Predict the 3D structure of the following.
Amino acid sequence: MSGHSKWATIKHKKGKTDAKRGKLFSKLSRAITVAAREGGTDPAMNIALANAIEKAKAESMPKDNIERAIQRGGGGAEGEQYESIVYEGYGPSGVAIIVEVLTDNRNRSAAEVRNIFSKHGGQLAQPGAVAWGFERRGSIVVDGAKYDEDTVMTAAIEAGADDVVQDGDAFEVLTQPADFAAVRDALAAAGVQFEQAELTMVPKNSVKLDETDARKTMKIMDALEDSDDVQEVYANFDIPEDILEALAG
């Protein structure tokens, strides 16, 4: 499992403060609204909306909030208009970072992302400089202490998963983006609950970090994720799980 996936799973398990959760719900709501506006309000016909809703549910976002976000998107052109922008850059120790933004003010977002990179020892790069080192995949993380490998492997592979990788006490099911929903639903039908299920950017290669560089990298990751306009942050760091646990605490 990529370091970024481990980091996300650990933080999800530990939960968030009310203030952090409120900001997270705002970002999730924005993603649902934009997906509904661009592809329609029927999740069965709009994979981006279906994925945004599933992510919101995984974070325990109230059903009423989800429905309101869909309705806003279905209203068409009313309200704020957001555009999607992707920034690429490097963090401490040359860690490759991709930042996905939804914003109603391109200049504001660009300035803020640039400032975060600069403040934390990183730098922005030209489009394409980093993206080549990642690939879009579906990632479903299952607690290996609750389910045996055969159960997870059988349900996942039969539904079209590319691979099932064991990392410590967790299994990561990897899929092509088009197969993600089918594999996720097949696991659920088999009674397998997941710690995390999302479309993500999986790095082709990782940068191993010691504790000192890990702390620097986590600071820039947290600062980016805390930015109001930032929806997703992906990186190719590899940090031992015990250090990640300590940093998340």
Notes: Strands lie at 83-90, 96-103, 123-125, 134-143, 163-167, 170-175, 196-203, 207-208, 230-235, 237-238. Residues 222 and 233 are 9 Å apart (CA to CA). Residues 134-203 form a domain with the Alpha-Beta Plaits fold (CATH 3.30.70.980).
